[in-house]
User: Fold NUDIX domain-containing protein from Vreelandella azerica.
Amino acid sequence: MSIHATVACVIEQNGRFLMVEEQRGGPSTQFNQPAGHIEAGEGPMAAVLREVAEETAWCVRLTGYLGLYVFDTPEGLTFHSHGFIAEPTEFMHTALDPDIHATHWLSGEDIRRLGEQQRLRSPLVLARIAAARAKRIYPLDVIHEGPANQ
Assistant:
């Protein structure tokens, strides 16, 4: 059994959430928070900052940790996904990751409707937004990154 270590980020501005629209090989695109795998030698915070920049062209400031979400897919894959919350700080005007069709600032209602249409990449999208809205946020220092993993 292998476990996939991933990150995802809830980014809210003016009541809207930054979402990525991805072409996943099906008849329609899917929507997700900026997210991706943690690469070798990388910690979760570095990974989420990299993924947000690659998928949205936004620099963000992490403001909290939403926790570790464990998700088993119907195909038998297990994901350990670190959820973060952040605020946008600067748009970089750089090219997006080729897997990203577009980015959108969507309301919570827009995202809920996408869920009803089964266009969310994962049920964790709504779970992370719910945690952020409920202020179930942990300080970033619960994650120990660095050479000594202090």
